[in-house]
Structures are given as structure tokens and as C-alpha cells.
Design goal:
By secondary structure, the protein is an alpha+beta fold. The protein has two domains: 2-149, Proliferating Cell Nuclear Antigen; 159-273, Box (Proliferating Cell Nuclear Antigen). It contains five helices and 18 strands. Strands 5-1-7-8-9-6-2-3-4-18-17-16-10-14 form a 14-stranded antiparallel sheet. It has a four-stranded antiparallel sheet with strand order 13-12-11-15. Strand 12 (192-198) and strand 13 (203-208) form a beta hairpin. The chain starts with a strand and ends with a strand.
């Protein structure tokens, strides 16, 4: 089993770092699925039993890597690596914050335990090269568990509507978190999206209108809604750091919230199950 990749474009290295650091804020548990064409970061809810997928992120390898070689141990030539997202964040933060970055090599190594090794090549002020190496211990997942890591099913959502600006929404949600633990998200085919909390003391709602609707019921006045954990919803909003081109809110009434973010060759899918009243 082999994997190695090399990034040399400064913009690609910083973008890769920014994406991974954002994902690392969502949870402490993660898995990297490597295929010949794509990298999949699969993020799990912390302490969920059975383990539940929280986010599914897809990166096109050709957008980031100048060199990319994989020799997996499955029929589809894939490798599955489980690791600590906190340790991964330390490594990728290194090549986001330095201006002397020349290249980054990522490879699967065997150093007593399997590791995802980052070789970060820096250029000194005198023009010399300096190598900084980070090892992230990984667990190579057994094929017996591959079923847990398959792509999330596609649902027939009741409504799919454009999300408002995530930075603005993040400021609003930070205030709502002080009032309650849950938020009711409702949408109509008229382009209205509402975020509402309700307690014994007060009901507070924020309304957005004139949003683009990709799919809606036959009666555009019908309301589709889902009640979710406000803290977990707030976690997704850190994805505004990726500077998405589009973010779509998909609601399966009373059951599921699916947030679909796209930016160039990056896709982030975020899933929140409904919370009963």
C-alpha cells in the first residue's frame, strides 16, 4: 500500500490548509479516503453511538497536487485512514502561516505505527532549503468497515433553497446560542428562510427573503422545517472561511438538514438529524 502527493503552488497549499483547518473545527474524529481522482474527508459526530457521519468533503486531487500516486489494497484502488483531526490541524497550520513555503509532500509511511507524513520544504532568507517534517499517526481501516464510509444517500428533499451569507448568519446564530440549544429552520418556495428559537421566555426569529429556490413543493406557500442542534449548526458556519461560491440548504421535513457547500473543486456536505420537540 502506497500513497504520496506533492503540492508546489502556493495558492493550492494555502487553500488545502484552509479547508482542512475548517474541517478540523467540526469534530475530533475523522477519516481520509484516498482514491486515484479524489480525496474524501469524512467527519464523524463526536461520541455518537453508533458512529454517525457529520460531514462529507470532496477534493479534486488534480486541483491541489502536482504529483499524486496511490497504490491501494482494494479493487477500486482506495486507501482509508483514520486519524485525530487535532493532530492533522497542527501539521497543515504550519504550511498556511509561513511565507517561505516552497513545496509540501504528503505520504503514507511506516514509523513504528502507520503515519501520514508531511514534508514541508521551506526557503530561508539566504536561499537555502529547510525541511520540516510532521508525522500524523493513522489507523489503516479494514475493508470490513468500508460500508461505514460510503457516500451518503441522496434524499428527495422537500425544499432546496439558497443559504444567506454565512458570515452574517454566523453573527446572528452566535446571539441565538445564548438563548436556547435548538433552532427551527423553516423555508418556503417563495424564497423565505427563517431561523427561530422558542423558549418559555420568548420567541426570536430571523427572516431572510428573496433567496434562490432550487426545488420546492407545488404550493410555494407550504412550509418545510426541521429542528436541529444549534451548536452543531453553528459549527458548520465556520465554513464561511472557505469562501464558498454557493451554499444550499436542503430540508427533509421533520427529519434532516443537509447543507451543501461548493467552492471551485471542493464540495462540503454537512448533515444534521432532526431533534424532536
Amino acid at each position: 500500500m502506497k500513497f504520496r502527493g506533492k503540492m508546489v503552488e502556493a495558492m493550492c497549499m494555502r487553500q488545502f490548509s484552509s479547508i482542512v483547518l475548517t474541517l478540523c473545527k467540526l469534530s475530533k474524529e475523522g477519516l481520509l479516503r484516498l482514491t486515484p481522482e479524489k480525496l474524501y474527508f469524512i467527519i464523524f459526530e463526536e461520541s455518537s453511538v453508533p458512529r454517525r457521519m457529520l460531514a462529507w468533503c470532496i477534493l479534486e486531487q488534480k486541483h491541489f497536487f502536482e504529483e499524486y500516486v496511490i497504490d491501494g489494497n482494494t479493487d477500486n484502488n482506495e486507501i482509508y485512514l483514520e486519524f485525530s483531526l487535532e493532530m492533522l490541524a497542527v501539521s497543515v497550520n504550519t504550511f498556511k502561516s509561513v511565507d517561505s513555503l516552497k513545496a509540501v509532500k504528503i505520504k503514507l509511511t511506516d514509523k513504528i505505527t502507520p503515519c501520514l507524513t508531511f514534508e514541508i520544504e521551506l526557503t530561508t532568507s539566504l536561499g537555502h532549503n529547510r525541511l520540516c517534517v510532521h508525522d500524523v499517526p493513522v489507523v489503516v481501516a479494514s475493508w470490513r468497515h468500508f460500508e461505514e464510509f460510503k457516500e451518503p444517500p441522496k434524499h428527495n428533499y422537500d425544499i432546496s433553497i439558497e443559504m444567506p451569507n454565512l458570515k452574517i448568519l454566523r453573527n446572528i446564530v452566535d446571539k441565538l446560542k445564548k438563548l436556547d440549544h435548538y433552532v427551527l429552520i423553516s423555508a418556503k418556495g417563495t424564497g423565505h428562510l427563517t431561523f427561530e428559537i422558542s423558549t418559555h421566555r420568548a420567541t426570536v426569529a430571523t427572516h431572510f427573503k428573496d433567496l434562490t429556490v432550487e426545488k420546492c413543493p407545488d404550493d410555494r406557500e407550504d412550509i418545510s422545517s426541521v429542528r436541529v442542534d444549534l451548536r452543531k449548526f453553528s459549527q458548520f458556519l465556520v465554513c464561511e472561511q472557505i469562501h464558498p461560491d454557493t451554499v444550499v440548504c436542503n430540508i427533509l421535513h421533520g427529519h434532516l438538514l443537509h447543507l451543501d457547500l461548493k467552492h471551485e473543486d471542493v464540495v462540503v456536505n454537512y448533515f444534521l438529524m432532526a431533534i424532536d420537540e
